[in-house]
Amino acid sequence: MDSQSLYYSLELAAGGRYILNVEQRTALQTSLVILKKNYKFNRVLFWGKIMGLKQYYFIAQGRGEDELKDRTVLYSFNCMEWFLLPPVTDVMIQEASKAAKGQFMGDPSYIYEKLEEEEVVIKVTEENRLAVTVHQIDKEVSLVPRGAFIKAPNSLVQINRGFGGLSESESKKLDNFLHFREPMYQKKSILEMSKLNPAIDFLDELKDDIPKGSWLLQYECAGRVCVVRSLLWLGLTFYHVPMTPQHGYIYMGDGTKNLDLPFML
Predict the structure, then answer these.
(1) Cα–Cα distance for residue pair 143/244, rounded to 1 Å
(2) pLDDT reported for residue 177
(3) What is the pTM of this model?
(4) Which of helix, strand or coil describes residue 134?
(5) What pLDDT digit, counting tens, does each position of 121-153 carry?
(6) How is the chain split into domains, by residue range?
(7) Which residues neighbour 59 within 8 Å (Cβ) at sequence distance 6 or greater?
């Protein structure tokens, strides 16, 4: 969620639940402004918090000119001092999936080890695991309302300044919420494509996700706020205020995927 509306967004996404104390909110409000200036980001988002046994990781994300591709992820233990996470590679993803299991320790230098065949030892630092986890959550469950972002003729993905929000009826359908990542699903038929606007319909719809039922959509704050929660990555909460451009998501969890979901539906 955008740092410029952090207090407001946290209240709407939390639904009255306690997620950050006053000191943490105050520190974020100051440090994220400094972060944006120092790294020359177009904007900075507070991404969320991943819980560790020793300490919690607070995550921020800097966005560049292209909102979809220009992303830089940082972490902090005190919401004031920030450290860059390394860019994620395919090798990092493979190694983390094999060696890094269980709850986060809260120590970026901690090393996970796994002995493979032929006496090969795979070693993964928790810092790399953290980078991979943030990447996976963004890839699998980050979302935006339809029309909130626009793809320009030069292929840059940017905020749609003309977006006034979904209507109340639109916000009740998963069809109108999109994955904020590079498209992964198969392309639609020519007939379906003819009904779409390529400037805003360039992302995957949540309704196409497998398994079906991995999203929970409901209304909170006396019916004023649409809230969508992921059952695949428990702790991911998205909010949107219909008829306004206000929307955002936050992750507050232990950084583990709910692999039992197919058996729960």
Answers:
(1) 17
(2) 96
(3) 0.92
(4) helix
(5) 999 999 999 999 999 999 999 999 999 999 999
(6) 3-264
(7) 46, 47, 48, 49, 50, 73, 74, 75, 134, 251
